[in-house]
Specification:
By secondary structure, the protein is α+β, with helices and mostly antiparallel strands. It folds into three domains: about 350 residues, Beta-Lactamase; about 60 residues, no CATH class; about 230 residues, Phosphatase 2c, domain 1 (4-Layer Sandwich). Helix content is about 45%, strand content about 20%.
Length: about 650
């Protein structure tokens, strides 16, 4: 697809795609790394915050425990008057902000000794007011049945109670640290219980002060899993972690509840039943009371920071893309501007205007070198065109001369058929088809005054103009020498000497000539290294002329040639040819050969001489099957129709 756009845009697109992939990889890596680091930091922070909150509560509890134990020592040493007890309790509440209220509840055995008073001092529900004094023994308040009283009495040790609502004794949600008192240190003389109350509102405010984000929250559960503080007020003192797990359909919360009750510290993921969001969850125990602090962080709220960072990076990336686009376009333009100038110049050059100058491009970069190469090509092309024009003109002149030479060559061979209209006793036809414009084959025939007919076929070595010139010289010498000798062997001997003399190119010619006495059919012939002709007998059989001794004509001087004789009967045909017939090749470069020639002659033997030659030429074209003609093709057919008073009757031989 990019192949159809310009180099400038292609370069720009590739730069932006590459930069986009790199930037995307950086943003993706940054997001993944930031998220992983944030999760690890959050895990560490959550666990630390949970433990720190638990330790903070633990510290408060330890302080409350010390206050309670200190009070118990006061009552162990002496029996105080109710007024002194109220004053002591007030000082405890005022000096310890974490203590909501404090009480001394004597056992029924010592209630009369304290004037039937069970002093209790607590803070007002509205901040800023005076401390409240009341007696737990008044208003039918049965404190001996409360857990904060019975547990330390029965266990014989200080203990923290479960959260409860103390109606009539402070009227708030609280937990109480209760310490048993014994008369002057005697454990068997139970004096009463000293208490220090911690309001759950204080614990709720403590949990709310934690920085857990907009939708994060903290809670505190007691040793039996009851919610002491929670974001949902209706959970406090009404639900346990197990009841919420059952109602919310979050099975993982049940296992987390078990771990919290076992006093474990942990971190994990769950769907918050309050917000319905995927959240991280951390918890840690308060050792002294076996309470557990829990922290919930919504994942989306925390990951929004990562998303915000990614959006910022993406925005910066887009701005960078826009800047990079401008830079890429500027770079592409600086590179493609000279290329466009070169393109315009080459279009001008393509019209043939080689004088059009190329744009000057400074520098040593690839474009500048390309411009100089184009200019060098233009100059070379201009010189080549001038040379080509001269060569073309010379070639046209040579082709014209060759065309004239072909005309001259073809004029050297007889082309009028029938050649002897006054001689009804014979039939003659010949064909010369050069492989090139001009060739080295030739044929000739002429009639003598004493009713003798001379036939000659020759094939000069080589092709083209040299062969054509040698052929013309050979024909001229042959006619001249024939008029002097009128004998085939003697003529070839003299012709050989003339051609061999001063023959620097070492050219030669194969030549067959025959002298036929028409009245008798007597044929006298000589062969100078040429293919032996075929005789098509009157009965349709085909045979070669008997061989006679004779060498190539023009090779060496003083060579001897032997004559042969054959009698032609009426209806018999003499077929002369050059090796262009027997050495024609098909596309597989397989030669025809003499056997193929004989087979094809059998197919056309009953035809007249012109049709016979035409049939053989068509057979050669069919055999070649489009392959280039490798040699000149020359064929001559002579048929004697009558001898003396004997005339030829055409035989009907099936082909």
């Amino acid at each position: 697809m990019l192949r159809n756009v310009t180099i400038g845009w292609r370069m720009t697109v590739l730069i932006l795609v590459g930069a986009g992939c790199i930037l995307g990889a950086i943003i993706g890596y940054g997001y993944i790394t930031a998220r992983r680091l944030l999760e690890q930091e959050l895990r560490d922070k959550a666990c630390y915050l949970a433990e720190a909150t638990a330790n903070r509560i633990e510290t408060v509890q330890r302080a409350v425990e010390k206050v309670g134990q200190g009070l118990s020592l006061q009552f162990d040493r002496e029996m105080l008057a109710p007024a002194d007890i109220y004053a002591l309790l007030e000082s405890v509440v005022l000096q310890n902000t974490e203590v909501f209220g404090s009480a001394f509840a004597p056992s029924p055995a010592f209630l009369e000794a304290y004037g039937r008073e069970a002093p209790y001092v607590c803070r007002p529900q509205q901040p800023g007011g005076p401390l409240i004094r009341l007696s737990l023994a008044a208003n039918n308040y049965q404190y001996e049945t409360k857990d904060w009283y019975t547990l330390p009495r029965d266990l014989g040790r200080a203990t923290w109670t479960e959260p409860y609502y103390d109606e009539g004794g402070g009227s708030v949600l609280m937990v109480t640290y209760a310490v048993p008192c014994y008369l002057r240190g005697r454990t068997n003389s139970f004096l009463g219980v000293v208490t220090c109350d911690v309001s759950l509102f204080w614990l709720t405010d403590l949990m709310a002060s934690l920085d857990l984000g907009k939708r994060g929250y903290a809670f505190l559960i007691s040793a039996n899993g009851t919610y002491m503080t929670h974001r949902r007020k209706d959970f406090i003192m009404n639900e346990t972690v197990f009841s919420v797990a059952e109602e919310s359909g979050v099975p993982a919360l049940r296992e987390i509840g078990r771990r919290m009750l076992r006093g474990e510290t942990g971190f994990g993921e769950l769907i918050s039943f309050v917000t319905g969001e995927a959240s991280w969850f951390a918890f840690a125990p308060v050792p002294s009371t076996r309470w557990t602090v829990g922290l919930v962080f919504p994942k989306k709220e925390l990951l929004d920071k990562v998303f915000s960072l990614s959006r910022t990076l993406a925005l910066l990336g887009i701005l960078g893309f826009i800047l990079l686009l401008g830079v890429a376009l500027a770079i592409a333009r600086s590179i493609t501007r000279p290329l466009r100038q070169l393109e315009a110049a080459t279009k001008t050059l393509s019209t043939g205007n080689l004088d059009a100058p190329l744009p000057p491009i400074e520098g040593e970069d690839e474009v500048a070198r390309l411009s100089r190469s184009f200019d060098a090509m233009r100059r070379s092309l201009k010189a080549h065109v001038e040379q080509l024009r001269a060569t073309t003109a010379a070639k046209e002149r040579i082709e014209s001369e060759i065309h004239i030479a072909r005309s001259i060559q073809m004029s050297l061979v007889p082309r009028t058929f029938p050649p002897f209209p006054d001689h009804d006793e014979l039939e003659l036809f010949a064909l010369l088809d050069p492989a090139r414009d001009i060739g080295g084959d030739f044929y000739d025939f002429f009639m003598e005054k004493d009713d003798h007919l001379c036939l000659v076929v020759g094939d000069v070595s080589g092709k083209g103009v040299p062969a054509a010139l040698f052929m013309a010289v050979t024909r001229t010498f042959f006619r001249t020498l024939w008029n002097a000798e009128r004998d085939p062997a003697a003529t070839l001997a003299r012709l050989n000497n003339e051609l061999a003399r001063d023959n620097e190119p070492s050219m030669f010619v194969t030549l067959f000539c025959a002298r036929i006495h028409l009245p008798t059919g007597r044929c006298q012939y000589a062969n100078g290294g040429h293919n032996p002709p075929f005789v098509i007998r009157a009965d349709g059989s085909i045979e070669r002329l008997p061989k006679v001794k004779g060498t190539l004509v023009g090779g060496l001087e003083d060579m001897q040639f032997e004559e042969g004789f054959v009698d032609l009967k009426p209806g018999e045909t003499l077929f002369l040819y050059t090796d262009g017939v027997t050495e024609a090749m098909n596309p597989d470069e397989v030669l025809t050969g003499e056997n193929w020639t004989i087979d094809e002659l059998k197919k056309v033997r009953t035809r007249d001489c012109e049709s016979l030659i035409g049939g053989m030429r068509e057979a050669l074209k069919s055999y070649a099957a489009g392959a280039e003609q490798s040699d000149d093709i020359t064929m001559l057919a002579f048929r004697l129709k009558s001898v003396g008073n004997h005339e030829f009757t055409r035989i009907n031989t099936k082909q």
